[in-house]
Fold this sequence. Notes:
Elements: H1 4-27, H2 34-59, H3 64-91, H4 99-123, H5 134-146, H6 148-164, H7 168-181, H8 193-217, H9 224-249, H10 255-277
Amino acid sequence: xxxxxxxxxxxxxxxxxxxxxxxxxxxxxxxxxxxxxxxxxxxxxxxxxxxxxxxxxxxxxxxxxxxxxxxxxxxxxxxxxxxxxxxxxxxxxxxxxxxxxxxxxxxxxxxxxxxxxxxxxxxxxxxxxxxxxxxxxxxxxxxxxxxxxxxxxxxxxxxxxxxxxxxxxxxxxxxxxxxxxxxxxxxxxxxxxxxxxxxxxxxxxxxxxxxxxxxxxxxxxxxxxxxxxxxxxxxxxxxxxxxxxxxxxxxxxxxxxxxxxxxxxxxxxxxxxxxxxxxxx
Length: 281
């Protein structure tokens, strides 16, 4: 595999960083200062924009113009984040751990995950675009999000919070989301696809069965937020099912199926971070 050292280095840096930022934010939920919130925001924006800049430079011709554009990709988003912090500091010098912060934090973490997925996929050698073909870009995005190189750090993060942080229904939902990721049919970029489709379909049925049984047994104890979380999980199952069925209905272009599965993965990541932040408690 190309650039193995850089692949390992990216995963080794990004995985603990995302775990630390999320754990740090949740642990300070009751006493979050403006400074801690600002530091977390800047780190997340800088890391995501840096990965985007490296990705752009890596897949281009690497001339002076490309270098300048890559630098601007990294600098512009960081500048916007700094301006946001400045304006917020002028208007309100506190950081309130509320629904808005949880959603925004989840979006930023998901952006980091997507940037890492795209960069890892490019490092593996899948980055050449010889002509303007939108299907290739769709396939590149879909394959990146569902590729094994990205699933390894993502599953590691999920396992950490399932074991250490989540409790009760949140842990149950986290386990269901984890099960939906560990046998993604696209994880090996088309290799052993048929066995993975079968296992993925079986796991989808298992997840559906488990959540229906859980709802039936605890129907009187489920809170409003729990019901919202259940609805999101059903939505993910529906999107995943569409990704499996799509190739049988639309055989070309095949990249569309990868995109649907990637959309399911992105929603799953966002939902998972919201669970850890405590949005559904």
